[in-house]
Amino acid sequence: DIAQKVADWQIQNYTGKYGDLNWVNATFYLGLSRWDATAEKDCQDSRYFEWLQQLGERNEWQVGKRMYHADDICISQTYLELYKETKNKEMLGPTLERMEWVMKNPPQGTFELDYKTMSNLEHWTWCDALFMAPPAYFKMAAITGDRRLTKFAHKEFMATYDFLFDKDENLFYRDFRYLDKKEANGKKIFWGRGNGWVLGGLAEILEALPQTDRHYSFYQELFCNMARRISELQSEDGFWRASLLDPEAYPTPETSSTGFFVYGLAYGINKGILSEEEFMPIVIKGWNALISAVEESGKLGYVQPIGADPRKVTSEMTEVYGPGAFLLAGSEIYRMAE
Fold first, then answer.
1. What is the Cα–Cα distance from 205 to 319, expressed in whole angstroms?
2. Would the CA dihedral through 337, 325, 22, 77 be positive or negative?
3. Do 226 and 198 form a contact (C-beta atoms < 8 A)?
4. Nearest to 216 by CA among 225, 224, 227, 205
5. CA separation (Å) from 122 to 70, 129, 196?
6. What is the SS3 assignment for 209?
7. pLDDT at 117
8. Alpha-carbon span 116 to 103, nearest angstrom
9. 246 included as an active-site residue
10. Which end of the chain has less neighbouring CB within 10 Å, N or C?
11. Burial level of 71, CB count in 10 A (0-12/13-18/19+)?
């Protein structure tokens, strides 16, 4: 009931102000498509599927304009989810063409230069990108059987991992600008939603990769290491804060990171990757916290606006990706309930 209320509110308040193909909206589409596939079949209600189908058709299943930018292929994940239901190859065409072009014209930018230089965003040089792009490649590889897609995605993922992952904290810096910065308490800056993007992206990758794939063990180990660390950083009220290591600097709840973390941890339990005994209490506390942030109308509050680092959050703030993360989490909670 609560997931349906959140989904309905976001659809009713969908403006497309960022453009249908933008990552902000694409995250919601993915959550909605997963919720539809998980729960709506039991309800004999196809309205969410139809809403997404109409969105894809009016955009002719296109992706964003920037050829390399990870954000502009995020919407492909929804197309691939819908393809599972329909086997309509038209849904795959533009995404496959984009991936083929990128693999034939590999990224040339660096990881460290000013982000105002667009070529430096050709690689997945910010941790959010690990949710936006690599799952799409791994999912397409699962559909087509094309190992080149897996090879490319893993190579690019590893470049980001080697550059931004802190092995002492088992967390990701958002991008090169934060490698040497500190919070007010002297701790390193690890952004809540940034690491939420990564854990959610890892769940998507693990679902797409066969367990026999030679890269599977790497992604599973990384997922488990992050899950344990993230679990240690949950606040007493069940939420995670915008700054993972300095929660007092931003004391209000933050629901987009909490949504992604609950999704990832619940997925790990359902998949048998994480211990139910160890992680279930964390998931339950996190899910109840998320529910408490939903207004009677279905609006999800305490969503940090678009950004790249921890910032102030208020109960009135919401953004389209927040309900997307909420629905991904809700889908896994629903599977647990079944």
1. 24
2. negative
3. yes
4. 205
5. 8, 11, 22
6. coil
7. 66
8. 24
9. no
10. N
11. buried
**The pair of three-digit structure tokens given for residue 332, joined into one six-digit string:** 């896994």
pTM (2 decimals)? Answer: 0.97
- Sequential DSSP letters for 237-257: TS-B-SBSS-GGGS-S-BHHH
Q: Which residue has the tokens 């998980």?
A: 38
Amino acid of residue 5 = K
Answer yes or no: are the C-beta atoms of 261 and 248 closer than 8 Å: no
The active-site residue out of 71, 128, 246, 309 is: 128
Tell me which residue has tokens 């349906």.
Answer: 4
Contact, 331 vs 34, CB < 8 A? Answer: yes
Structure-block tokens of residue 100 = 């083929």
The span from the CA of 234 to the CA of 247, in Å, is 10
Cβ–Cβ under 8 Å, residues 226 and 218: no
Six-digit token pair at 273? 């990757």
Q: Which residues of 163-188 are buried (b: 16+ CB within 10 A; e: fewer)?
A: bbbeeebbbbbbbbebeeeebeeeeb
The continuous run of DSSP H or E covering 326 comes out as: helix 321-337
**Helix pair angle (192-208, 216-232), 10° resolution:** 150
**Residues whose CB is less than 8 angstroms from the CB of residue 110 and which lie 6 or more positions away in sequence, other chains included:** 120, 123
Return the pLDDT at 328: 98
Summarize pLDDT for 165-224 with one digit per residue, the tens. Answer: 999 999 999 999 999 999 999 999 999 999 999 999 999 999 999 999 999 999 999 999
Neighbouring C-beta atoms of residue 160, cutoff 10 Å: 23
CA dihedral 10, 18, 66, 329 (to 10 degrees): -20
**Could you please report the per-residue DSSP string of 122-157?**
SS--STTHHHHSHHHHHHHHHHH--HHHHHHHHHHH
Length of the chain: 338
Q: Which amino acid is at 317?
A: M
Q: Which pair of tokens denotes residue 76?
A: 């492909």
First to last CA, the chain: 14
